Amino acid sequence: MPKFAANLTMMFNELPFLDRFEAAAKAGFKYVEYLWPYEFPAAELKAKLDQFGLKQVLFNTAAGDISQGEWGLSAIPNREAEARRDIDQALEYALVLGCPTVHIMAAVVPEGESRQAYKQTFVENVRYASEKFKPHGINICLEALSPEVKPNYLLKSQFDTLEIVEWVDRDNVFVQLDYFHAQNVDGNLSRLTDRLRGKFCHIQIASVPNRHEPDEGEINYQYIFDKLDEMGYQGYVGCEYKPRGETVAGLGWFEKYK
Ligand SMILES: O=C(O)C(=O)[C@@H](O)CO
Ligand SMILES: [Mg+2]
């Protein structure tokens, strides 16, 4: 049975962030993920996790200046110092939170810039992170984002991510397989999952096209979950969706997995 993690950035959004931990635990989740922890001291977040018996399973490196269109710095040439500062910060948080995996955000590539230079920079920064995280047993994952969500992001297809993972060539660096983006860009999800076997260490789910609960839309998630079980997937499945309405009211799909 998949180990579902509530994504506290998207779910339980009707509550202030720090109250979402309790709400997730009450709804039956044992695991949580969210985009960024950096607004709060790591110890405060860890206390919330412990208070409600939750395990944090994923968060991201900092996004940079979102108001300027940034979405990760780790692939931007000549900004390695900032990217590595963010990677070091993520490691400090991961150690306090006891988090097994960190998503290293790549970058948006401005029109006219060399994608190859961005890829090269990303590979070098991910190798830096790999070396830093390895002694602590922490995995790294890299994620493709569909253009309707993040136009011009360096990684669009799952095969863009796979290319970087294989180029980095380190045993703690994996694909973050978000089926919402994968369906938007690549499709053919069963074959894709087979193709990526052993290469992904974290999954995220949402319906397509509306990014809601995984009980509507064009993806048959029950089929995918059964397939992941058959494959022996041991990682987590992050529920990175925008609830149709109130979060708990939409959790009917989760009843049988509690
Ligand atoms: O948007 C997504 O999908 C994510 O997983 C974010 O963490 C990064 O954009
Ligand atoms: Mg995602």
From TrEMBL:
Transmembrane segments: none annotated. The active site is at E143 (proton donor/acceptor), E240 (proton donor/acceptor). GO terms for biological process: glyoxylate metabolic process. Keywords: Isomerase, Pyruvate. InterPro entries: HPT_OtnI_isomerases, HyI-like, Sugar_Epim/Isomerase, Xyl_isomerase-like_sf, Xyl_isomerase-like_TIM-brl. GO terms for molecular function: hydroxypyruvate isomerase activity. Residues 21-256 form the Xylose isomerase-like TIM barrel domain. Belongs to the hyi family. This is Hydroxypyruvate isomerase. It comes from Nicoletella semolina. The lineage of its organism: Bacteria, Pseudomonadati, Pseudomonadota, Gammaproteobacteria, Pasteurellales.
